[in-house]
TrEMBL record:
Gene Ontology molecular function terms on file: RNA binding
SUPFAM superfamilies: RNA-binding domain, RBD (SSF54928)
Region span, Disordered: 48-72
InterPro entries reported in the protein's UniProt record: Nucleotide-bd_a/b_plait_sf (IPR012677), PTBP1-like_RRM2 (IPR021790), RBD_domain_sf (IPR035979)
The organism of origin for this protein: Opuntia streptacantha
Keyword DNA repair: no
Cytoplasm among keywords: no
Lineage, highest ranks first: Eukaryota, Viridiplantae, Streptophyta, Embryophyta, Tracheophyta
Chain ranges of the PTBP1-like RNA recognition motif domain: 2-33
Protein name: PTBP1-like RNA recognition motif 2 domain-containing protein
Keywords annotated in UniProt: Repeat, RNA-binding
Length: 117
């Protein structure tokens, strides 16, 4: 998530750092990004730039894949039939908080999965 200001990012980190996603498990570990700006290329279920609704939903000629690629590599989707709210990526989740002059939000599948359940 990229915030409009550095102070907004600091406030969000202070509010969320160390909290559990579920009662007693899945503790949040929120860290600042070393990127200057978050770049969102597509508006879909994996990423979204709310300041630019005209972005395409996927590259031309490509369809959805079984995972998504990010700077860290390929992350698989949860298994079919997994119980709602299951956390498949370990006990600690890392969010990148960045302060900048523009308001951009990028929700990875991981964040959406957690927020939806």
């Amino acid at each position: 998530i990229q915030y409009q200001s550095r102070q907004s990012a600091v406030n969000a980190r202070e509010l969320l750092q160390g909290r559990n996603i579920y009662d007693g498990c899945c503790q949040l570990d929120i860290q600042y990004s070393n990127l200057e700006e978050l770049k969102v290329h597509y508006n879909n279920e994996r990423t979204r730039d709310f300041t630019n609704p005209s972005l395409p939903s996927e590259p031309k000629g490509q369809s959805s894949q079984s995972g998504y690629v990010d700077a860290g590599g390929l992350y698989p989707l949860p298994p079919a039939g997994a119980p709602a709210g299951t956390f498949h990526f370990g006990d600690v989740m890392q969010l990148l908080l960045m302060g900048d002059t523009r308001m951009l939000l990028s929700f990875s599948f991981l964040l959406l999965f957690i927020w939806l359940f």
